[in-house]
Each structure stands twice: as structure tokens, then as C-alpha cells.
Amino acid sequence: MTPIADRAFPEAVIFDFDGVILDSARMKTNAYLDLYELRDPEMQARLRRIVWQNGGLSRVKMLPILERELFGRATGEDGIMELARRYADIVDRRVNDCPLIAGAESLLDQLSGTPCHLVSGTPQETLLGTVRAKGLEHRFVSVTGSPSVKAEVFAAIVAAGSFEAARTLAVGDSLTELDAAQKSGITFVGVVPLDEPNPFPADVPTVNDLFGLAQRL
Ligand SMILES: [Mg+2]
């Protein structure tokens, strides 16, 4: 399809939250280490790798993967819910202390007038609480957490706004958001901090922070 020259880019932006708007991704990985009280460096490295490979998943989807891949356990729903409750006790207290990603406020200022949506793997009510605590609620047209599935939410945002998918921009720090964007043909930019490994294929454009993204728009 030939882009319509007089339509702006981006027509809309879909942001992930942890690691994209809020500098909370490392804290949330460390919280899994605390949850399991892992002291063995080899186990710590394995956990970090599993969380990194499955970045962007909700806690109730991440925990069965950790149970299986770290400990070889097929933990039932009750066990996962108890782990999720303990995980929430750790992260939901710490998350409000996390700073915004560098450049977040100036990018959102720059995008004022462009519909911005927030889509996260964090439980809906918890996400809304954090967004309000950070004074960000007026920045987003919609805020969607789990149990909604990112790919479905991305598609619904494009459909509801009658946006051209290629002129819609999704910004994420993990493969979950890249997959969700690609399923709808949405343009994607990854956020990869300078001191973290890049999880994305080589042809995916990335920025180190949101100052970097502001320069590209
Ligand atoms: Mg993230």
C-alpha cells in the first residue's frame, strides 16, 4: 500500500510501560530473584536469561515458565496465584519509586496532539495505580494491562482509530511487543538501554532511551 503523503507519522503511538515509560524493568527482574531467594550466581543468571527471553509477559504467564525451566516443576494454578501474590507484594511497593525513562516527559510533550496508548503486561488495576502515582494518566488515551493480550489490544487500537497500521508506532523493550506489532503490520521501535543486551533481530530499529526516539520523529 502506498502511504498517503499528507497523513502524519505517527498517527498514533502504543507504548509499553516497564522499560519504556518507567525505568522499572530491572527492578521487576530483581524481584523474581528476591521471590525465589536465589543466591547461587548460576541460578541467578539462568533466571535473568529466562525473564529476558520472555520479557513483556504478565507475571501469571512468566511464573509457570520460571517454575518449569528453573526448577522442573509443573506448578498448578493455585501455586502460581500464591507466587503472583508474593511477587506483587515485592514489586507493587517498589514500582512507585522507579524514575521515568530518560526523555519520557519531553517525548510525550512532543507527541501532544497524537493519540498515545499504554499497553502493559502488568495487572490492570496495579497499572492504573502506578500511572496515576506518576501523574501520567492525562498522557494516554487508553491504559490497558493484563489479562488483555498485547497483540489483540494493538489490533483493536488500530481498528478503533481507523489508523493506518504502518503509520502507527509501537514502542517496546521486549519481543512480546515486537510480535504484537508485527501481527498487525504496526511499525516498531525497540528501547534497549546501553548496558543491556539487545533482544531484537538485527533489522529492528532501536533507541537507547526516549530522547533517542524523540530525535527520530
Ligand atoms: Mg517492558
TrEMBL record:
Catalytic activity, as annotated: 2-phosphoglycolate + H2O = glycolate + phosphate
Entry EC no(s): 3.1.3.18
InterPro entries, A to Z: HAD-like_hydrolase_sf (IPR050155), HAD-like_sf (IPR036412), HAD_2 (IPR041492), HAD_sf (IPR023214), PGP-like_dom2 (IPR023198)
SUPFAM superfamilies: HAD-like
Pfam families (UniProt xref): HAD_2
Pathway membership, UniProt: Organic acid metabolism; glycolate biosynthesis; glycolate from 2-phosphoglycolate: step 1/1
Family designation: Belongs to the HAD-like hydrolase superfamily. CbbY/CbbZ/Gph/YieH family.
Stated name of the protein: phosphoglycolate phosphatase
Provenance organism: Azospirillum rugosum
